[in-house]
Amino acid sequence: MTSQISVYESAHKGDFEVIRVAVEDNPLLVLKQDDNGRVLLHWACLSGNLKLVEYLIEKNSPIDPDDDTDSTPLILAASAGRVEIVKFLISNKADVNHKTNQGHSALQYACSKGWEEIVEVLLEHSADINISDIRGATPLHRAASKGNLSVIQVLLKFREEKRLKINPKDSYGNSPLHLACEEDRQEVAKLLVENGGDLDGVNVEKQTPLDLCSRNLLKVLSTIKKE
User: Which class would CATH give 4-166?
Assistant: First the structure.
């Protein structure tokens, strides 16, 4: 019989036949955890093999098992950019607002990685647009810091429906605009200001977003402010 370690590796590789044979031989394998607290479904979702994910669910794998970081298969799929798997898990009632032990949700990972299609799918299925991690950072903070303009455009599309907060502050007092300015994400900073980003708000160090700007971005945003 294939060892448990190699079975998890095979699931990560998306090797359907190896997993099928192993599970048919031992149906309880879908419930067994590896050293990371992960079951086969976690690894299958990372692999991107939708057929394998469907098979494991058919074989009674739980939808929302968490690993040693409290990550669920949906969180891993969202982080890895596996759109079809995200859709499938949601259709099987996966918890879209589950958080890891650091407070990170599927939406936060998708926003950080720049997976705009996944961001849209999650928001269409009740993801909390303002969900925050243990440092108070929201999906908008993460997208702004990374400069993921297309993701922010998706978030803004849901602004009214989901009551998107444009100026939430993290535990350091930084708004998404602070982070965009600090990282010199010029197009993102402009878009945030045009949609109500507060140029006068201060963080715990009494800095405004303008205090964190490069010379060029300072000129651009100062012009928008005057308008």
Answer: mainly alpha
